[in-house]
Design the sequence.
């Protein structure tokens, strides 16, 4: 790599925020209050996953400390999940989502690169096609798509479950947006150092777009992690059951044990949560701008 | 369309080669001679059907039953899509009884008329009739249901109201129930009355039937809407008022109704047999069971119906599939195993006679008389939902109308609107 | 004004760091076989989108010209399904609800996401934790967020509990035709705002700090810096968020399905929910596909307008 790409740390003093209207304390307090407000509904869910299902609605009104806390937490609801297909479903969903993220990111990132790094006739048209593809509501075209997949004997296969997640026009749009912001000078410099189109993609575009790649990855991941209508159409037998379907299967037609339902959702939330928190450290001042300093 | 498909095939063929390892073609592995694997689709937890599957496999070692659960809220539509695509990975499936005629009309159900005599002998007349469409029998009734009036005896005692009994001859009227509910509210209970499925045709049809409004569908082809007659309007006026006056809570729906009763916040609760076991384990007050009320001067009508099982016409293993549903519906011992792991009534009369005392026992002293009550309602007062190819559209429009009436829409005008909506939807059927 | 060239050019140090390109050399956007190379990079995605989205959409478009009846069979009706839809008061209402919903929710969500992104990119204690909490709701399964919010909106639920705490009167929320749509919007914002904020954070982080430092030396206020530096320089991510958020909101239906079923009085009957019920519950696939075509056209118009409005001057 050229020397111009090496991030040169600015002196610490210069990086300090100089926006002073709200001091760090005020900002911290405001940030915390908003964060906690967003947490309240989930907190209530977690607390009720630690309570027997018949107590779920007992402390709703008027509000009291027991609405949001319990002194006698129990893991019974979580143990009850051991008798269900949820474990299997989570493994399946994880497998489907991870394959989708890896293959999908490769497909989407190359496409975004093709759209942003070159100038050619018909570029606008291709971009329009990609935009159009994500304007089409997937759940609405799932029925004709499922007919095709049945013709190809894809029902009850992981391939049939993974495939629809791969073509994600929105992820391409997202990556293109961030790819366009990559300074031309960097690319030019890399090219002078002898990098071809593939090299520029791998050594300039990808490393400089980590936050956008994470965002696109999360987009691909959530599409599969929350897929519900499509797996039902593709016929999930017990070997191919996925998380949201297993979750809905917990709701009987006569009664729902909300304690168990909430416990299952907490588990289903944990994996994306780990991903979101795990990748927070990449959401820092981007290399693409520090590299210019 | 043809061309785009050909294009698709080419595109996917390439990728399919790469991923061939992942895709295993679904093969039903059946011989068509009454052995092999029977794939069974239903909306219940696998544990519910484990006993019947186990009992059947013990009796028929050459047949394996492979059960798949589809969530209840998406069951009908998923079934519709998969059967419409001639999906042969379904051999037997559970049929929500009012949807039977639509499924039969589309050719998704195997004609089982040759079993008519046995089926007639095995169950109540309402449960036999429900499987008939176009003069043929398309499925076998496995489960049945009814509704009862549960009450919070402590709440009534606090209001000085004498509680109803389980005796059908001493059945309360809705007016009486509402008055007692208001008295209980005055004495400190939050709500007076709550129906378990607040916005569902299944539970609200009897209100209109009681006032002579009929099911709402009439005509030789059962494709004429009739929900704006006096009976329907009066019934819905009364129902809307229970919410307007605060006797019943708005905004509590879905599965959140039974917990209101369990938490002691409502005096009267209309629910099903499945609530007996649940209240016995979760409610910490004195409760009891009484017959579902009727309107003063009106007819007695109670909900009925549940699930039948049928054979998919696209199945490649019909003989084995038939063996299985005959076992579950016609063989009393087999029928009994379908309810072993849940609280629902078997349609098979002999099985029900064995089952109901057990249900009463499950409810303890609170549920005294429940077995006789259920038997009586199923034989005498049950009014099935209408058999019509347009039932699905009808129910969907009616349930939305019920929800609006509950939230304060004018009943007469709203029923008028529902009539137009249903007529519009039915135009597409013919 | 937001092109990379201007941006780098505005920063004197950037000029120094990068070797100036000899004028004779072609720029990166005009190389020898750019179209072929670009197509090679685009091919997998185009095949995937063609097979998985556009082909079934074409089938849907084709199907929308037919009518299959349960008792009658299939016949070609040309635009019959469309004409019937536009004459149907329920569909007209669904269109109106969808338009009102789109006009209100998107600016609100994007503005909130932007302000939150600004807040959470400032130097403050624990901001990574707090912003994770704001992003988190996107991970909640839709069926569960609907259950949670049904409990919040119940007459005796959490929302009224909090209102009571502050001495405010109880509200009907989902049971009132006037409040139901707004209640659904709040729910959807709880789910989505953090998600869109995430992309804006990535965009804000791409802005060189030196810009702010220079502006501060010039004595520009925080508010002025927000409008003259942050806002213009995240314009591209902002455009992405606006378009993607608009599309996502037009395609949402799960909370409506679980909470209100389009009611009360059709006040939450969004087009996508109407499509879903028609296709999956009522089994009227042909009309549902006609509605899909209309929905896609509406989305197309809105998105085209947004692109036009947000087009950068270059």
Sequence:
């Amino acid at each position: 790599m050229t020397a111009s790409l090496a991030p040169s740390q600015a002196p610490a003093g210069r990086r300090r925020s100089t926006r002073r209207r709200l001091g760090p304390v005020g900002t911290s307090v405001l940030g915390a209050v908003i964060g906690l407000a967003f947490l309240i509904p989930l907190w209530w869910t977690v607390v009720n996953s630690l309570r027997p299902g018949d107590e779920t609605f007992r402390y709703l009104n008027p509000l009291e400390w027991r609405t949001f806390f319990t002194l006698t937490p129990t893991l019974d609801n979580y143990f009850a999940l051991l008798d269900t297909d949820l474990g299997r479903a989570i493994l399946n969903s994880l497998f489907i989502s991870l394959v989708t993220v890896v293959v999908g990111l490769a497909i989407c990132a190359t496409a975004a690169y093709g759209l942003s790094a070159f100038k050619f006739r018909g570029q606008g048209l291709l971009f329009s096609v990609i935009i159009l593809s994500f304007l089409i509501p997937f759940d609405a075209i799932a029925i004709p798509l499922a007919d095709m997949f049945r013709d190809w004997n894809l029902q009850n296969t992981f391939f049939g479950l993974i495939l629809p997640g791969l073509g994600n026009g929105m992820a391409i749009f997202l990556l293109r947006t961030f790819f366009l912001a990559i300074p031309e000078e960097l690319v030019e410099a890399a090219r002078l150092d002898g990098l071809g189109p593939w090299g520029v993609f791998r050594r300039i575009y990808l490393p400089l777009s980590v936050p956008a790649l994470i965002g696109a990855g999360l987009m691909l991941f959530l599409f599969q992690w929350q897929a519900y209508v499509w797996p039902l159409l593709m016929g999930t037998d017990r070997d191919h059951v996925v998380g949201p379907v297993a979750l809905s299967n917990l709701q009987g037609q006569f009664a729902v044990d909300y304690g168990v339902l909430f416990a299952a959702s907490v588990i289903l939330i944990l994996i994306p949560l780990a991903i979101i928190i795990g990748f927070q450290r990449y959401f820092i001042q981007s290399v693409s701008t520090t590299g210019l300093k | 369309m043809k061309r785009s498909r050909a294009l698709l095939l080419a595109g996917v063929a390439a990728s399919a080669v790469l991923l061939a390892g992942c895709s295993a073609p679904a093969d039903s592995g059946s011989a068509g001679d009454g052995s092999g694997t029977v794939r069974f689709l239903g909306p219940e937890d696998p544990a519910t059907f484990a006993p019947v599957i186990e009992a059947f496999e013990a009796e028929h070692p050459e047949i394996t039953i492979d059960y798949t659960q589809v969530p209840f809220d998406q069951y009908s539509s998923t079934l519709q899509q998969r059967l419409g695509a001639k999906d042969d990975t379904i051999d037997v499936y559970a049929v929500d009884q009012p949807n039977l005629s639509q499924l039969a009309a589309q050719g998704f159900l195997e004609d089982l008329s040759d079993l008519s005599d046995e089926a007639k002998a095995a169950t109540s007349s309402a449960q036999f009739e429900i499987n008939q469409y176009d003069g043929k029998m398309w499925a076998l009734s496995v489960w049945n249901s009814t509704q009862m009036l549960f009450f919070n005896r402590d709440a009534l005692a606090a209001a000085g109201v004498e509680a109803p009994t389980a005796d059908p001859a001493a059945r309360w009227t809705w007016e009486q129930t509402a008055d007692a509910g208001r008295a209980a509210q005055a004495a400190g209970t939050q709500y007076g009355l709550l129906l378990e499925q607040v916005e569902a045709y299944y539970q609200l049809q009897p209100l209109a039937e009681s006032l002579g409004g009929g099911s709402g569908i009439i005509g030789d082809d059962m494709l004429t809407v009739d929900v704006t007659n006096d009976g329907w309007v009066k019934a819905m006026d009364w129902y809307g008022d229970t919410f307007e006056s605060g006797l019943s809570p708005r905004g509590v729906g879905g599965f959140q109704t039974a917990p209101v009763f369990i938490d002691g916040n409502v005096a009267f609760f209309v629910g099903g047999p499945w609530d007996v076991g649940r209240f016995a384990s979760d409610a910490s007050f004195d409760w009891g069971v009484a017959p579902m009320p009727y309107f003063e001067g009106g007819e007695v009508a109670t909900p009925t119906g549940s699930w039948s099982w049928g054979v998919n016409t696209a199945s490649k293993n019909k003989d084995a599939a038939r063996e299985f549903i005959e076992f579950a519906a016609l063989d009393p011992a087999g029928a009994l195993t379908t309810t072993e792991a849940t609280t629902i009534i078997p349609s098979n009369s002999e099985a029900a006679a064995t089952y109901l005392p057990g249900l009463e026992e499950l409810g303890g002293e609170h549920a005294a008389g429940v077995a006789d009550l259920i038997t009586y309602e199923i034989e005498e007062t049950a009014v099935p939902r209408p058999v019509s190819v347009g039932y699905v559209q009808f129910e969907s429009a009616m349930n939305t109308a019920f929800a609006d009436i509950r939230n304060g829409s004018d009943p007469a005008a709203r029923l008028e609107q529902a009539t137009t909506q249903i007529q519009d939807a039915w135009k597409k059927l013919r | 004004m937001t092109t990379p060239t201007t941006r780098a050019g505005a920063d004197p140090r950037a000029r120094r760091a990068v070797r100036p390109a000899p004028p004779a050399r072609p720029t990166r956007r005009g190389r020898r076989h750019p179209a072929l190379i670009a197509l090679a990079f685009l091919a997998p995605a185009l095949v995937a989108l063609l097979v998985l989205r556009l082909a079934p959409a074409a089938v849907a478009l084709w199907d929308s010209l037919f009518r299959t009846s349960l008792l009658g069979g299939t016949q070609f009706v040309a635009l019959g399904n469309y004409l019937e839809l536009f004459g149907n008061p329920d569909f007209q209402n669904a269109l109106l609800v969808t338009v009102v919903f789109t006009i209100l929710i998107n600016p609100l969500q994007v503005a909130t996401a932007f302000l939150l992104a600004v807040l959470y990119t400032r130097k403050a204690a624990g901001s990574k934790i707090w912003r994770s909490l704001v992003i988190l709701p996107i991970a909640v399964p839709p069926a569960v967020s609907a259950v949670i919010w049904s409990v919040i909106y119940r007459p005796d639920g959490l929302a009224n509990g909090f209102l009571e705490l502050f001495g405010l009167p109880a509200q009907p929320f989902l049971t009132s035709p006037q409040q139901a749509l707004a209640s659904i919007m709040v729910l959807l914002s709880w789910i989505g705002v953090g998600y869109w904020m995430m992309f804006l954070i990535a965009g804000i982080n791409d802005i060189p700090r030196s810009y702010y430092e220079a502006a501060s030396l010039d004595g520009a206020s925080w508010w002025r810096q927000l409008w003259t530096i942050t806002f213009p320089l995240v314009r591209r991510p902002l455009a992405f968020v606006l378009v993607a958020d608009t599309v996502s909101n037009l395609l949402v239906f799960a909370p409506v399905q679980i909470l209100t079923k389009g009611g009360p009085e059709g006040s939450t009957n969004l087009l996508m929910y109407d499509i879903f019920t028609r296709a999956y519950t009522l089994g009227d696939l042909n009309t549902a596909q006609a509605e899909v075509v209309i929905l896609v056209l509406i989305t197309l118009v809105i998105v085209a307008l947004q692109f036009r409005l947000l087009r950068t001057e270059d």
In short: The CA atoms of residues 141 and 308 of chain B lie 4 Å apart. Chain B has 18 helices and 15 strands. Residues 1-31 of chain B have pLDDT under 50 and may be disordered.
